[in-house]
Design goal:
By secondary structure, the protein is of the alpha/beta class. 36% of the residues lie in helices and 12% in strands. Helix 1 packs parallel to helix 2 and helix 2 packs parallel to helix 3. It is globular. It binds FE2/S2 (inorganic) cluster (FES). The site of FE2/S2 (inorganic) cluster (FES) has 9 residues, from helix 13. It is an enzyme of class 1 (oxidoreductase).
Length: 383
Amino acid sequence: MQSFGLNPANQHIQSPPLWLLAELTYRCPLQCPYCSNPVDFARSGEELSTVQWIDVFKQARALGAAQLGFSGGEPLVRQDLAELVKAARDLGFYTNLITSGIGLTERRITELSEAGLDHIQISFQAADEEVNNMLAGSKKAFAQKLAMARAVKAQGYPMVLNFVTHRHNIDRIDRIIELCVELDADFVELATCQFYGWAELNRAALLPTREQLEYAEGVTQQWREKLAAQNHPCKLIFVTPDYYEERPKACMSGWGSLFLDITPDGTALPCHSARQLPIEFPNVKEHSVQHIWQESFGFNKYRGFEWMPEPCRSCDEKEQDFGGCRCQAYMLTGDASNADPVCSKSKHHGIILAAREEAEQAPLGVDSMIFRNEKMSNIIIKG
Ligand code: FES
């Protein structure tokens, strides 16, 4: 892997963008209210062409990128997906498709497999057909996901499932895991909703209570023990929402450290959520990936530790968590350089405590939510 010279912004050796995320499109047949896409995605420019994407892959690979995730929106909407996968594999990337399963067919799985795709992850909204389809905004979604999860496994891929959990489905975690075991899943990510994009807009309707969370973690642990006793290969990964933590997550393993996100119109971001920050991020149509990664203002803005105000600057944990998430700091405090309010040392931590309190007080029935679709995105843009 290539090494780099001194980065003029921080005077430290810049590591390569190991993990490239290609958000191929914001188009999606579903309308999940917890989607992490930007709420103003409808203003995004024209999608990169096949040739432009392949050029981005070549440049990123030359910089040392090793893993390439295809995501969206729904990446299967792109009819050139197999061609892009093949180009990525030919360049030596480990390739991963992150999909809702909608638009997948046995023929397309074969095509993707022949193109060399290494890994497929299918997301579900719930283990109950009715709740799943309500959240997805599609009457056929659940049946299609089940069929495609089975088809992916039948073609020799490990079955990797992702369930986003929140206050409307987390109490059914037992049934979710049961379904995964019935499906013969190999890896299951039980990811409690993180609050970006549409999920942030719907936070009050999605944040589980602490009691719900503790129940779900307990049930997951019981299942782990049961599966281990049976030598069952299924691995359960439980991701807690950082709203119930006292220290922030090391978001993206540090800004501009190893993660490079290219959005559908070619805007390059250090994370999927950064477009909302008051920073002009570079575009691959105008700059080389090398310039973007090593030299651009946006990617250098929060690298290293010099930018940090207190309490992060003098904190002995800053090298573990980098002050948390810049996007969350911006969304909750209006200033991305503030400590992530998840941290109990932040003077804004009360915002997190208030959100927890709100989750405790709100009734657990189905609240009204704003569903992610282009029409709603346009309404939000118009304000
Ligand atoms: Fe942007 Fe955390 S999501 S830095």
